[in-house]
Design a protein that fits this description.
The protein has one domain. The protein contains five helices and two strands. It is an all-alpha fold and 177 residues long. The two termini are 18 Å apart. It binds protoporphyrin IX containing FE (2 copies).
Length: 177
């Protein structure tokens, strides 16, 4: 059937999905690269500021992404997976949607209560409330924990996509391309 490969997510949903993937990859790469650079150097500051920028861009893209998703239906998966697989998918997607909002917000608010958030090019979001070092410390600890936990959730999501592609041989991934 031609429908099998032609029924894709709307253009907006697909563009926002892959744009978010790039931005999240940027956030993870930069935050890991920073550990290779010496503390206090301008290079490390720039790399960390780029982490903030990638992360804030994820948050910025999340809203139009969710609006575009609410305005269009998910195309059916063919052949249809069993119910439990649908439910597992919905649960993982719910977690991923929560992550793209909560994770950058944790980083942003941690910065807003402790000195503001510096961005590349000398831009700066000033401190808004505070200073509250204890709150900032707790928010950062949750941010680091969640960021680490989501290596596994994102990994699971990618494995599921490959499982659909290579094992079930259905059109799940093609719908997002
Ligand atoms: C989706 C977006 C984001 C992801 C996936 C993410 C991920 C991470 C991860 C994995 C770490 C821990 C790195 C490590 O030490 O192993 C981290 C640290 C950090 N992130 Fe983010 N982050 C995001 C957005 C943001 C934003 C928007 C800000 C601030 C505006 C921010 C500020 C920070 C800070 C300050 C740390 C260092 C915390 C510390 O070591 O005490 N992040 N982030
Ligand atoms: C890096 C972070 C990623 C995030 C935050 C993310 C997030 C999401 C979310 C929230 C959905 C649900 C869309 C909906 O509302 O129906 C989704 C769907 C999907 N994603 Fe990702 N994704 C990521 C990476 C990837 C990667 C790397 C792949 C491919 C290997 C991928 C493949 C897919 C596919 C095939 C779907 C459609 C699933 C379905 O309709 O059942 N994603 N993604």
């Amino acid at each position: 059937m031609t429908q099998l490969t032609s029924a894709r997510y709307s253009r907006g949903v697909r563009v926002f999905h892959w744009l978010t993937v790039l931005l999240i990859a940027g956030a993870y790469v930069t935050v890991n690269v920073r550990t290779l650079l010496e503390k206090g150097t301008p290079e490390r500051t720039l790399v960390m500021q780029s982490h903030f920028l990638f992360g804030l861009a994820v948050l910025l893209v999340a809203l139009p992404r969710i609006v575009s998703r609410l305005g269009s239906k998910a195309p059916p998966i063919q052949p249809p997976p069993p119910d439990w697989m649908h439910r597992a998918g919905h649960l993982t997607h719910g977690l991923l949607y929560a992550f793209i909002i909560v994770q950058p917000l944790l980083g942003l608010v941690a910065g807003l209560v402790e000195g503001g958030v510096g961005l590349p090019g000398g831009l700066r979001i000033p401190e808004l409330f505070g200073p509250d070092k204890a709150l900032s410390h707790d928010l950062k600890a949750i941010h680091v924990w969640l960021g680490t936990a989501f290596y596994y959730v994102i990994g699971l999501h990618i494995l599921a996509a490959l499982f659909h592609l290579w094992v079930r041989r259905d059109n799940t991934l093609q719908r997002m391309l």
